[in-house]
């Protein structure tokens, strides 16, 4: 039985693992829309606060809402360009009106989407989980080099700091036992940040300028306004997120050694829809299951939901206390990159483990896995190949997880003659896809 102190430490580890991904969205959107420093500070605080609420809603699990899986929710980067486009063409109130309605769409559409889960046999889920891990590796490497667009991108000190962080995590995971082993990523982040401070690349200025308390208030940027075009755009964004989240649910099931039921996915998506509506209410963002945290589940071997409850609570507190939240931003990108190599690699390895259960010699399984992984990884590495397509197509195809998932689903329909839900060959008397 884990003590409260250990649960808190494990929860904090999950928060730090996803923190960069969580705050980058408000930073990018706020910067593109030329928001004032006060508005930017609110946007970040509201985002963290709603991230926490969304995670708590997801992990609780009830008859209709919440998957009950140890899943962390964060704002989806897929929504960044659409929100900027909508707000630039009209205003932020229109963007948030579209977010609220699109969240309601997810709540209502989740049961219908659940009926399509028969198209996710093991060969598809294994391919999708592998794609999730592989498509995140370029993100890790960008951070290893110092962060895309940073003035010191690729400098040797960043590479050295990332290597030290990685080695610390590996050493703790290999040599330590018990609780210390389960917080190996947190240990690596702390030691890496301390070394970064002595190297002169840790900046505490954001902590000094941050306010002590911030209360998320509904409709901070004005009462929501509604546009059919904006609503349709955000619905497309959230359909993309539903496909992405499905892959994350399966990956979490693999990491925690449990079979994910269709009901859990439907309830999880309903919960995500409710979280998206909260994002619109508090003028934050649409939310989706974060794949960044799946690797931690495999590394820590701690499967209890209490840790994710703690992570959600920590994010709520950080959203209310911006100065404390700013303290978590001092972790250098290179340190995060070193930790991401382990976490994202673990997700890819989990996908390969799922695929090992599939007979790749039967029913086109090899082609399904090969083509979907190639398309997904290609989209993630070179999203600019789709720049000339219409906006809705770009949203679908520039997301490697979604493009790879759709490829796997379509190929499974056309190449698999007869499969059951596990991906094994079904008896000849049952030709339909089950």
TrEMBL record:
InterPro entries per record: NCS2 (IPR006043), UacT-like (IPR017588), Xan_ur_permease (IPR006042)
Highest rank taxon of the organism: Bacteria
Keywords in alphabetical order, please: Cell membrane, Membrane, Transmembrane, Transmembrane helix, Transport
One Pfam family named in its UniProt record = Xan_ur_permease
Q: Which GO terms describe its molecular function?
A: xanthine transmembrane transporter activity
Keyword rRNA-binding annotated: no
Sorted alphabetically, the Gene Ontology cellular component annotations on this record are: plasma membrane
Q: Which PROSITE patterns match?
A: XANTH_URACIL_PERMASE (PS01116)
Record's subcellular location? Cell membrane
Task: State the annotated membrane topology for this chain.
Answer: Multi-pass membrane protein
- Residues spanning the membrane: 7-33, 39-57, 64-87, 93-112, 119-139, 159-176, 183-202, 222-240, 307-328, 334-354, 366-386, 392-415
PANTHER family (alphabetical): PURINE PERMEASE C1399.01C-RELATED (PTHR42810), URIC ACID TRANSPORTER UACT (PTHR42810:SF4)
Name the NCBIfam families on file.
Answer: ncs2, NCS2_1, pbuX
**Annotated family:** Belongs to the nucleobase:cation symporter-2 (NCS2) (TC 2.A.40) family.
What is the protein name given in its UniProt record? Xanthine permease
Give the species.
Answer: Paenibacillus typhae
């Amino acid at each position: 039985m884990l003590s409260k102190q250990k649960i808190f430490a494990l929860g904090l580890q999950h928060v730090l693992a996803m923190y960069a991904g969580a705050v980058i969205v408000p930073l990018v959107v706020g910067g593109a829309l030329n928001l004032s420093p006060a508005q930017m500070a609110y946007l970040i605080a509201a985002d963290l606060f709603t991230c926490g609420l969304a995670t708590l809603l997801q992990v609780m699990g009830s008859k209709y809402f919440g998957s009950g899986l140890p899943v962390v929710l964060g704002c989806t980067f897929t929504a960044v360009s659409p929100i900027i486009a909508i707000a630039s063409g009209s205003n932020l109130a229109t963007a948030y009106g579209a977010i609220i309605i699109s969240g309601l769409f997810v709540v209502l559409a989740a049961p219908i989407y659940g009926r399509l889960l028969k198209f996710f046999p093991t060969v598809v889920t294994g391919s999708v989980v592998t794609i999730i891990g592989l498509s995140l590796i370029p993100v890790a490497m960008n951070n290893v080099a110092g962060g895309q667009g940073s003035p010191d991108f690729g400098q040797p000190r960043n590479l050295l700091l990332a290597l030290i962080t990685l080695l610390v995590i590996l050493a703790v995971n290999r040599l330590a036992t018990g609780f210390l082993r389960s917080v190996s990523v947190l240990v690596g982040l702390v030691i890496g940040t301390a070394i970064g401070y002595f190297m002169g690349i840790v900046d505490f200025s954001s902590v000094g300028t941050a306010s002590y308390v911030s209360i998320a208030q509904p409709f901070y940027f004005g009462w929501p306004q509604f546009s059919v075009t904006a609503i349709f755009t955000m619905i497309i964004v959230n359909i993309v997120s539903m496909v992405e989240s499905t892959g994350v649910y399966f990956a979490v099931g693999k990491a925690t050694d449990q079979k994910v039921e269709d009901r859990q996915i439907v309830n999880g998506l309903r919960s995500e829809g409710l979280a998206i509506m909260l994002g619109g209410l508090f003028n934050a963002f649409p939310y989706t299951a974060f794949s960044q945290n799946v690797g931690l589940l495999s590394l820590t071997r701690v499967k209890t939901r209490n840790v994710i409850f703690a992570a959600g609570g920590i994010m709520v507190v950080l959203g209310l206390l911006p100065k404390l939240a700013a303290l978590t931003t001092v972790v250098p990108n290179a340190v995060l990159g070193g930790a991401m190599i382990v976490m994202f690699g673990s997700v890819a390895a989990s996908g390969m483990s799922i695929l090992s259960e599939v007979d790749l010699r039967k029913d086109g399984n090899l082609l399904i896995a090969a083509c979907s992984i190639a398309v997904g990884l290609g989209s993630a590495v070179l999203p600019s190949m789709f720049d000339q397509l219409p906006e809705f197509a770009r949203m679908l195809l520039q997301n490697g997880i979604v493009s790879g998932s759709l490829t796997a689903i379509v190929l499974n329909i056309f190449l698999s003659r007869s499969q059951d839900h596990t991906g094994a060959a079904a008896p000849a008397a049952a030709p339909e896809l089950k």
